[in-house]
Structures are given as C-alpha cells and as structure tokens.
C-alpha cells in the first residue's frame, strides 16, 4: 500500500483529510514540531494545531512542549485495534447487506412486489406452516420436496391441502404417481404445462411468482382477504379444475370435507335432485358480525346462477355466479354462501357432508 492509499484508508476509518495527511507525515518523521509537520504535509500552518489536538484526542499521537509544540506518533497498537474493529464491523455490515438483499424482510402490507423468488418461496413456507384451514399450492416436484415439512405441519393442523404439480420448462415428470403424499396433501393433481408458483393459505395470504422462463422475474405477496380471492380463482380455473387427480385422501363415504361451496354443489346437486337427504356441517362466519358459526342441519335447497344450461355435471366455471345453500337445523333455517358471501347469512369456510340417506 503506498502513501496515498494509506491516507485514503485512514479517511475511510474516520480521519479527516488533514488528519490523515498529518498522521502519515508524522509516522515518517517520527517526531516533529508543529511547523515542521505543516511543511512536510499539505496541512496549512494555520490549521496544524487544531489537527494535532484532534489526532491526540483520537489516540493517534501525543504532543509535548519543547520550545514550541511538538508531536510524535503513539504506539500504533491502539490504532491497529481500532482499525481492526472497524474492519470486522465493515465485514459484518457487508455480510448483512448481502443477506438483506437476498432475503429482505417482508412488510405486512396488503400487497408487496419483490424481486427474488426466494423471498416468495420463504414467505409461502412460513404461511403454510401456520395454516389451519386450507392450502392451495402450485409447485414443481422439486419445490414440493422442499416444502414437505411445512405441508406436514399444515396437514397435522387440520388444513385441507390441495397441490397442483407441474414440470419445469422442457422437463417431464414420470414419477408423480409414485410419490408419497400421505400425511402431506388432501388431494394432488398434475398439470402437464409449466406454470407460475402459487400458494394461497387460509384465504388471507397469497404468494405468486412467474415460472423461471418468464421474461419478467418478480414476486407478489398478498396479505389481504379480498385480493387473495383473485389468486384463488386463478388457481381453481387454470391450475386445478381440469387436471387429472393423482392422489386423494378423501374416501367416497362420509364424512366428506369441502373447502369450497362450488365443489360441494358439483357433488351434492345430483344427489339432492335424486331426493337424497344430506346432513351438512357448516363451519364459517356470520356475514354481518364476522363471528364464528358452526351449524349442523339438512340441506333443503341449492341455488346457483349457472352461466349456461344445467348439465349432469356442473363445471367450476359454470358456477361462477351466486351459489347458495339452505340448511335446516332443528331450530333455524340458514342461507349459506361461499368465500366473500354478502347476500347470505353465513360464509362457509368448510363444508362437511356428515351423512347421505
């Protein structure tokens, strides 16, 4: 390191330009009067006394009287310790900057746009671990493997876990049906086309990132009930409804659990029209007070505004309009809607068919 580089390093360590000039010159001289030091460096004579006092207060030099003010450099041990501490601090700061750039803290705004997929993936993993109601997830098999521990926690919490598996661009997945999903998922479907990463958790959190070959790389984090509903519809119509089931934990016999009123209607409508009595358990919320609601009663009516002529089997998109159930309990009659219900008395969070007779 030459003299100029040493002065620059000292300025980076907190010395002023004049202080660095004077200290480096004093190291070369050993000891000198104030005027001699001023002549040996670029510090004006009028400023040299203030510079020497500042350097002495920092522990770099000591001054003494000998006909005039003289100065000499102190034992550099304390200076070196200070510089080494600064070096360690700067090194730690560099590491922290890198870490925060790679994984910035996610502010709990309604909507956040982030730059890196890791931020989206880690947030999704965090949400999944705390899920208690429902998880809807679109992932590659590799991503699924990483999320296994989190999915296991969600499943043990009682969440309904729906997984849409898809390959990466140019890849084929041959072992989808051979993968163990027991204790991890309620249902798994396989989409043959690459698709974005999507995680929707407990109707309030959503994480989205385009697939790796997308022109634009970014991520969207949602912490809002209404905005999450947009991603929910995308998941249901594009990533779920039309793709093959490769695994289900649901048996054909009650109790049969649904997290969406439209899926319930798809299965219940033919039975209801055939005169079957369907004992239904509704977990949800009062649409006026948002208080939890738990009711058990018989299904007495199904109303839906189908966008086309009714068929034997209704598709999810054909039930895009209002869908409403009427449930008769021993004491009251309730109207039940799905996610975002405003016209009905109850918004269903989970619907369980307890019996069919």
UniProtKB/TrEMBL annotation:
According to the record, the signal peptide region is none
Q: Where is the Transcription regulator TrmB N-terminal domain?
A: 10-75
InterPro entries registered for this protein in UniProt: TrmB-like, Tscrpt_reg_TrmB_C, Tscrpt_reg_TrmB_N, WH-like_DNA-bd_sf, WH_DNA-bd_sf
Q: Which residues form the Transcription regulator TrmB C-terminal domain?
A: 111-355
Q: Name one Pfam family in it.
A: TrmB
- Similarity field: Belongs to the transcriptional regulator TrmB family.
Under which name does UniProt file this protein?
TrmB family transcriptional regulator
Q: Organism source for this protein?
A: Haloferax marinisediminis
């Amino acid at each position: 390191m030459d003299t100029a580089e040493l002065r620059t390093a000292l300025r980076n360590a907190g010395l002023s330009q004049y202080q660095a000039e004077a200290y480096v010159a004093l190291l070369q001289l050993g000891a000198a009067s104030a005027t001699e030091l001023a002549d040996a460096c670029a510090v004006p004579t009028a400023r040299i006394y203030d510079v020497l006092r500042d350097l002495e207060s920092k522990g770099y030099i000591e001054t003494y009287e000998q006909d005039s003010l003289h100065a000499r450099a102190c034992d550099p041990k304390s200076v070196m310790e200070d510089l080494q501490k600064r070096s360690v601090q700067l090194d730690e700061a560099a590491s922290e900057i890198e870490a925060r750039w790679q994984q910035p803290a996610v502010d709990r705004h309604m909507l956040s746009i982030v730059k890196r997929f890791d931020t989206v993936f880690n947030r999704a993993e965090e949400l999944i671990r705390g899920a208690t109601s429902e998880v809807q997830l679109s992932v590659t098999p590799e991503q699924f493997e990483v999320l296994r521990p989190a999915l296991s926690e969600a499943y043990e919490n009682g969440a309904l876990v729906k997984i849409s598996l898809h390959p990466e661009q140019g890849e084929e997945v041959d072992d989808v049906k051979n993968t163990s999903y027991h204790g991890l998922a309620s249902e798994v479907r396989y989409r043959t086309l690459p698709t974005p990463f999507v995680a929707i958790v407990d109707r309030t959190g959503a994480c989205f990132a385009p697939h790796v070959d997308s022109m634009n790389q970014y991520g969207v984090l949602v912490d809002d009930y209404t905005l999450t509903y947009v991603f929910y519809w995308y998941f249901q119509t594009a990533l779920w409804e039309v793709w093959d089931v490769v695994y289900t934990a649901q048996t054909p016999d009650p109790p049969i659990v649904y997290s969406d009123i439209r899926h319930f209607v798809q299965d219940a409508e033919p039975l209801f029209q055939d005169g079957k009595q369907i004992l239904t358990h509704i977990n949800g919320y009062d649409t006026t007070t948002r208080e939890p609601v738990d009711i058990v009663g018989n299904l007495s009516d199904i109303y839906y505004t189908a966008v086309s002529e009714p068929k034997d089997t209704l598709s999810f998109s054909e039930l895009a309009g209002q869908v409403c159930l009427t449930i008769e309990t021993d004491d009251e009659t309730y109207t039940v809607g799905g996610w975002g219900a405003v016209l009905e008395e109850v918004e269903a969070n989970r619907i369980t068919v307890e019996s069919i007779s």
